[in-house]
Amino acid sequence: MLFVVFGLLQIGSAEPRNPVPKELQYLEEPDRVEWQMPERVIETLRLRESDVVADIGAGTGYFSRRFARQVAHVYAEDVDPEALSFLRREALAKVTVVPGKPENPMLPPNSCNLVFICDVLHIVKNRPVFLSNIIPALKPGGKVVTIDFYKRELPVGPPLWAKLSEEKVKEDFLKVAFKLDKQLTFLPYQYFLIFTK
Fold this sequence. Notes:
By secondary structure, the chain is an alpha/beta fold. The chain has a single domain (33-196), classed as Rossmann fold, CATH 3.40.50. 28% of the residues lie in helices and 24% in strands. The protein contains 7 helices and 7 strands; from the N terminus they run αααβαβαββαβαββ. The chain has helices spanning 2-11, 32-36, 38-45, 62-68, 81-90, 127-132, 166-175; strands at residues 52-56, 73-78, 95-99, 112-118, 138-149, 179-184, 190-196. A 7-stranded mixed sheet has the order 3-2-1-4-5-7-6. Strand 4, helix 6 (127-132) and strand 5 (138-149) form a beta-alpha-beta unit. The model is unreliable at 1-11 (pLDDT under 50).
């Protein structure tokens, strides 16, 4: 009986159930929990059990796994075939894998209370179009969260030339008529912005 209970707990684990492909291992670095603070990030969002969350650029499901323990459903979106394949193999309860496009995450219309974009916007080439394509997926009152690396030298994250400044992100959101709702500063290497429509 004890083994059955332990097995059930593993289903909702924050750890991946399958071996992570070499090219995606950087997303599961053991020290990431220290600087990314996923549990605190999610707690700050004050999600309800009935909420639906889209995790854009879900990668290995680092946040999707955690969201799935707390909400009704998660859309784990990515454009990378390796990430999509890994997410499908994970077969997480309450998680639908969504193959996106570079300028469109391809989320179902009127489906999401929250669209979560972590460490992704700096690689999106046409951000205003991308952000515009998120709008139809938002339910009334829906929010978009973006977390990305400060544009300065840091011990983690992409090289300086690839980073996107907080000011540029705010500008891109404002271009498509989002409003900054909240700005949080507890993450050591990343800005944390919450936008509403």
